[in-house]
Specification:
Layout (H helix, E strand, L loop, with lengths): L2 E6 L9 H17 L9 E6 L4 H14 L3 E4 L3 H13 L3 E4 L17 E3 L4 H14 L4 E7 L2 H16 L3 E8 L7 H10 L3 E5 L2 H13 L8 E4 L8 H5 L11 E5 L10 H8 L8 H18 L4 H4 L11 E3 L2 H9 L4 E3 L17 E8 L5 E9 L1
Parallel strand pairs: 1-2, 1-3, 3-4, 4-5, 6-7, 6-8, 8-9, 9-10, 11-12
Antiparallel strand pairs: 10-13, 13-14
Helix pairs in contact: 1-10, 2-3, 4-5, 10-12
Length: 380
C-alpha cells in the first residue's frame, strides 16, 4: 500500500494558504482511489500540521517517518522545508512540495532525487515580477522581503531582473520572519522615496508590514505596491484593515498560474465542486504531488520509493499525454509510456525534479479585497 503523509500549514503565518493545498491533496487521493488505487490497493493519507515553525514541522515529519510513510507532501514554506528536507530525503522517503519556490532547492543535495516540487522556482517568478514592475513604468523600486530562504532568494532574483530592465533598487530590506513590529524596516523604505515597493512575505507578518507602510505614507494610496504568491490570499485585505475591504485596491502581484496553459482543463471546476469557497493558490500544484507519487509507483510496479524514484521525472515528459490519474493508469496498464500533464501544467521536469518553465498570473486586488487575474505570462 502506498502511504502518503502531509506536512502542510493549518496554523502559523501560512495558515490562510493551507486550505487550498490540503483540500487538493485530499481530492487527489480520492481520485486515485476511485480509479483503482495503486497496484490494486487504496492509497492511505495521513495529515499533519507544519505551521510555519521548524520545530512543529520536524515533529510532524518524525511522526510520519515512524509510521513508515513512503512519501510526504510539503512543506509549504521554503524555510520550513529546508529544516526537514535532510531528514525526509535521508530516510529515502519522497518529498514533493507544491509551493516551495525558493531558489536553493534546484541544486540542493536531496540524496539522489528524493525531493521534487511542482511549483516553478523563483528564478522564474522574479523575472515575471520584475518585468511587470518595469512595464508599469517604475524605475526607482524598493524591496522588503522575509529574511529567509524564500524571501531572500526571491529578492536576489528580483533585483537582478529590475536592474537588467534598467530600473534602480533604491532600498532592499530584509525583515525578521519572527518579528511583530516592522516600523524600522518600513522607515528604510520610506526614506528611499520609491516609486514602487515589492513586498515578499506571508500573510501574518506581511499584513503587519502593510499596516506600517500605510502609517508611514508608503502604502497603496501613496505608491504602487507589488506582492508575490505568498500574499495571494482573499483574506489579506481583512487582515490589513478589517473595516476597509478596499484597503489594498490596485495592489498588484504575481503567482504561479492556477490555470496554466497546457494544464488539465477539468481541474478548476472539479476543485471548486470539491472545496467550494476555498482559495485556489497552489491547489493545482498540491493536487499533482500525490498523483505523481502514484503514477511513478504504478509505472515501477512497486510502492517502495527506492524503486519508483527512478520513474518520477520520466512520467512528466516524453510519452503519451494524459491529464488525470484514471487515463494515465489505463495507459500504464497497456504498457504505454506516459507524459502526465497535470493540474499545474505540463510539468516537464528537469533532472532537478522541478518544472523548467512556468506560467505566472498577473493579478490585482479589487475594491472588495478579491483577487482579479489580469493576464498569464510564460517564463522560461
Amino acid at each position: 500500500m502506498l502511504e502518503i503523509g502531509t506536512v502542510l500549514p493549518d496554523t502559523g503565518d501560512l495558515a490562510v494558504l493551507g486550505p487550498p493545498m490540503i483540500r487538493a491533496v485530499q481530492m487527489a487521493v480520492e481520485d486515485i482511489n476511485a480509479a483503482g488505487g495503486v497496484l490494486g490497493e487504496r492509497v492511505n493519507l495521513t495529515e499533519a500540521d507544519s505551521g510555519t515553525n521548524e520545530d512543529l514541522a520536524n515533529t510532524a515529519v518524525d511522526g510520519h517517518l515512524a509510521a513508515g510513510v513512503d512519501a510526504i507532501v510539503g512543506a509549504a514554506s521554503s524555510r520550513v522545508s529546508l529544516a526537514v528536507i535532510d531528514k525526509i530525503t535521508g530516510s529515502q522517503t519522497m518529498q514533493c512540495s507544491p509551493s516551495n519556490t525558493g531558489t536553493a532547492f534546484t541544486t540542493y543535495d536531496d540524496h539522489g532525487g528524493y525531493y521534487i516540487r511542482t511549483a516553478p522556482p523563483d528564478t522564474l517568478q522574479g523575472q515575471a515580477l520584475g518585468d511587470l514592475i518595469t512595464a508599469d513604468g517604475h524605475s526607482d523600486v524598493a524591496i522588503i522581503a522575509l529574511n529567509d530562504a524564500y524571501g531572500q532568494g526571491f529578492a536576489a532574483t528580483l533585483v537582478a531582473q529590475l536592474e537588467a530592465n534598467g530600473a534602480t533598487v533604491v532600498a532592499n530590506v530584509a525583515y525578521d520572519p519572527n518579528g511583530t513590529v516592522f516600523d524600522a524596516d518600513v522607515q528604510q523604505i520610506a526614506d528611499a522615496a520609491p516609486e514602487a515597493v515589492a513586498l515578499v512575505a506571508f500573510p501574518d507578518t506581511g499584513s503587519l508590514v502593510l499596516q506600517a507602510m500605510i502609517e508611514q505614507g508608503v502604502g497603496p494610496a501613496d505608491v504602487q505596491i507589488y506582492l508575490t504568491d505568498g500574499l495571494q490570499s482573499g483574506d489579506l485585505a481583512s487582515k490589513v484593515d478589517p473595516s476597509n475591504p478596499a484597503v489594498l485596491e490596485g495592489v498588484k502581484g504575481t503567482a504561479p498560474s492556477y490555470v496554466p496553459p497546457g494544464g488539465a482543463a477539468w481541474f478548476p471546476a472539479a476543485f471548486a465542486e470539491h472545496a467550494p469557497g476555498t482559495d485556489t493558490i497552489f491547489a493545482a500544484y498540491a493536487y499533482d504531488c500525490p498523483v505523481i507519487f502514484a503514477l511513478a509507483a504504478q509505472t515501477a510496479g512497486s510502492d517502495d520509493p527506492t524503486v519508483w524514484i527512478d520513474e518520477v521525472v520520466g512520467i512528466t515528459k516524453d510519452g503519451e499525454k494524459c491529464d488525470n490519474y484514471a487515463d494515465c493508469l489505463a495507459l500504464i496498464e497497456a504498457g504505454v509510456d506516459i507524459d502526465y500533464d497535470g493540474a499545474s501544467g505540463s510539468l516537464n521536469f528537469v533532472e532537478a525534479g522541478e518544472p523548467g518553465a512556468g506560467f505566472y498570473d498577473l493579478w490585482h486586488f479589487d475594491a472588495g479585497g478579491a483577487i482579479v487575474v489580469d493576464d498569464t505570462v510564460p517564463v522560461g
